[in-house]
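Q: Start with the shorter request: fold the first protein.
A: Done. Sequence, then structure:
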Amino acid sequence: MASDPDTSRRSWDREELPTGEAKVEAVRAMFDSIAPRYDLVNRIMTFRLDTRWRRHAVRRLGLAPNSRVLDLASGTGDLCIDLQRAHLRPLSMDLSFGMLAADRSRAPRTQADILRLPVANHAVDGVTCGFALRNLLDLPTFFAELSRVVRPGGRVALLDVGVPRNRLIRWGNSIYFGRIVPRIGGLLSDPAAYRYLPKSVAYLPEPEVLVRWLSEAGFTDVQHRGLSGGITQLLTATRI
């Protein structure tokens, strides 16, 4: 009997974005799949701007040397490397074992659901997270976890893709991110994953909502910045 084409397709290769626990499993499996060539595709599709965005996030974190920083959804460890260069002490956590296996930072690493961090209250000085907010099941729960584990006065810096305010930039970005990026990803890695990633922007709420949720979770000085014309966004905040 022929297999049902809908059930044989990968869970992240559907017209409708997955929700609930199906989203969690799809994200885990997808990142396991693309881990081996993840860095290569990122560098090509962002023209290496991703390296600039991460360095900017670390600068905006603004922590003293030797501060302990959790890098969540750490992937292959790019942010951990930038944290180490800034003389900070990163701990790498990711849901995807494939990503952790490809980590190049040599930072201590743990496979974990970052909505339920295996970390004591107020145990770290800061948190970074790069391009993963849209992949999380529940952002208010995530922000509450950040508030729990970061000490008072500690800092967070959270990167993700953005939607440019300028209509011309937004149009060009939608063409590039929606049509060109999937072709690049398809040539170099998993085509299904790079069809999913542009669509996953729809998971993100408006910047004003992100700022409000962080404030309600126990953070002050919450700031939202658009980078590179707004194609990327950075949230920074201080734990009360």
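Q: Next, the second protein, separately.
A: Sequence, then structure:
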Amino acid sequence: MIPAAFDYHQPGTLAEALKLLKEHGNEAKVLSGGMSLLPMLKLRLASFEHLVDINRVPGLDYIKEKGGNLCIGAMTRQATLERSDVIKSKFPILADAVPLIADPLVRNRGTIGGNVANGDPGNDQPAIMIALGATYVAQGSKERTVAANQFYKGLYDTALARNEILTEIRIPMPPARSGGAYTKLKRKTGDFAVAAAAVQVTLGKNGAIESARIALTNAGLTPVEAVDAGKYLSGKMPDDKTLMEAAKMAAAKSSPSADVRGSVEYKKEMARVLTARALKSAVQRAGAN
């Protein structure tokens, strides 16, 4: 299909982009990588009178450590994350996930900002950012920050205002004896997850779990944070029985919908299995640090 007619804008600065969003209000939409937006426009699942393409806005593509955080510019391509040494060495949860996002063509064009700001519960990185305790930076008339686990309000509904642009993701640098993992089940290359689990843990000196965060992909209308399961793990030794119980608690928080990828029961069971695998891998990585 062909998208409905729209006016195309290509601002050269962030200030110009924000001015366009303010001028056109709800009829304007930011275009970054376009890997989600353009298919929706072609299928006429969405339409906007104005597209504001921020691909030529400078200063939004970077990966750097600053103030105890890993700061990632919103226009950083997935392929750049895939090649990053700091991602590979310090954030294995992201190193697990990025190669599983769609296919190389999409990863060379798609951006991390588009992935987390779109509000699609099938996207991989929102759950990962929740597990990592990340914060999003939104720029409008002024700059503000929103915690990742407070950002998602509903299906394609986020805390980002129409006149704001997500400019940066800030991830706290993990302490010693920390590890993360992302496990994902999908039918084929390029497909969304049947189920997926993001886990980040930190171990104490005695080997017990000091802290744990678990979030699930495609398990509801938003990414699902399994808060109770994370609290359950705190202070416990990471033996198989404990990890399995936490995985069961996490899966119980999921509320997937039945579709061509499987029934509700199947998806909940896969959420449990994948959470258990991610927990085991995260604990092993934390112990090796």
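Q: Describe the second briefly.
A: Residues 12 and 285 are 43 Å apart (CA to CA). The two ends are 51 Å apart (CA to CA).
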